[in-house]
């Protein structure tokens, strides 16, 4: 059985709570492993913060959308926003994960976490929108 959940959120950080609630509800109803719920929430928090802070410079007068499509084998997530063009797959520098915490610049690990926790990522720019599609296979939960 497939379930689809859509959220339209204003570009305010307090909107992230709605994402957490939606993921908790969907994960509970589909009996996702706790690790999968945690990973999906962490990834959506990171991407949501990036959209709000960097894509729209914390201007609350914009909307971004998240669609979660859950089927037997995988969760597919699509994020859409009209912020400045940014392809996280090619425009984010690779973080230096080998240096000590004191030797690294602040930030830069978020997209790395998204890449390592999710199974597939793709990006496209269409109709002045950033569209990031993420797939998390359920057997990797």
Total of DSSP H or I helical runs spanning 4+ residues: 3
Show unreliable segments.
none
Termini distance? 18 Å
What is the total domain count?
Answer: 1
Q: How does the overall form come out from the CA principal axes? A: globular
> H/E series, N to C?
EHHEEHEE
Q: Structural class, judged by helices and strands?
A: alpha+beta
Which second-level CATH architecture applies? 2-Layer Sandwich
Q: Supply the CATH superfamily name.
A: Histidine kinase-like ATPase, C-terminal domain
* Largest sheet descriptor: 5 strands, antiparallel
Write a concise synopsis of the structure shown.
By secondary structure, the chain is of the alpha+beta class. The protein has 3 helices and 5 strands.
Write the layout of secondary structure elements.
Blueprint: E1 3-10, H1 16-29, H2 34-55, E2 63-70, E3 74-81, H3 110-117, E4 120-126, E5 129-137
Antiparallel strand pairs: 1-2, 2-3, 3-5, 4-5
Helix pairs in contact: 1-2, 2-3
